[in-house]
Amino acid sequence: MNEKIPLICATDENYAPFASIMMKSVLMHTKSFIDFYVLDGGIKDKTKKLIQEDLKKYSNHELHFVDMSKFNLSKFPSIHHYSVNAFSRYFIPLILHDYKKVLYMDVDIIVRRDITELYQQNMDNFPIAAVLEDFYEGNYTYLKQYIWPKYTAGDRYFNSGVLLMDIQKLNKMNFTEKAIQLTCQIYDRLNTADQDIFNILFENNFKILDYRFNYMPDHITFLKEKHPEITSINPVVLHYTARKPWKAKSCASEDFEKVLNQSVFMEKVVSKYKTYECLTYYLFGFIPFLKKYKI
Fold it and tell me: Looking at the 3D structure of the chain, how many domains does it have?
């Protein structure tokens, strides 16, 4: 085993099965020891036991549930489809203050390769490291026009679903306090919840990671148009930011299904969500337009 990797995710009862599936995919592909910290936004004890059962065959991990009720997450705004549990990320530097560096991942993720490579990325003295979302113009133009006119980073807008975090630097800059204050200040303008806050606070002050560490399969067309020089990507992390593979077929849903089929949550997920066969891309919003790229 290479080293111990602290990996954090945040979930409530509704998304707990997908947190378990994400963690299972990590263990299926990673040799290093993983310290999982689940920021618990109201997971039932029965579900926690199922998660433990789901991961028990893998000896290279420990699982910790962090009760988030004391942080009053219910006072945070509910924005579009985002759960208030997304704001749990603000408290990571306080909860894991003894660590130097930690890795955060959303639960709508499947890992395809060993995440040790991701964790070992050099931070280059930045407080966080993340993957650009420069191929999706809507989020960063909305941030500039309607949320934070002072924003100057343009398409250096990043996705906060996968973050390497330098805990000591974040605490030194009082990140948690600043994030909460800014959220209270502009909550009625936020578009992507805490992701907008991260991009404002770390504008031009983060390490850019390669796309393979937070690959968003449903946006492959936009990525190829923005970066025609990219001929192929071998993803370490698949992030289903658009179509959720438990609800709809996407160009990488089979990776999710492989892990789901080995999970104790398979029957629960299948019975709760009906999977639809969906066309991958649409031209002008209504004409089917299929385009395939190697990943």
Answer: 1
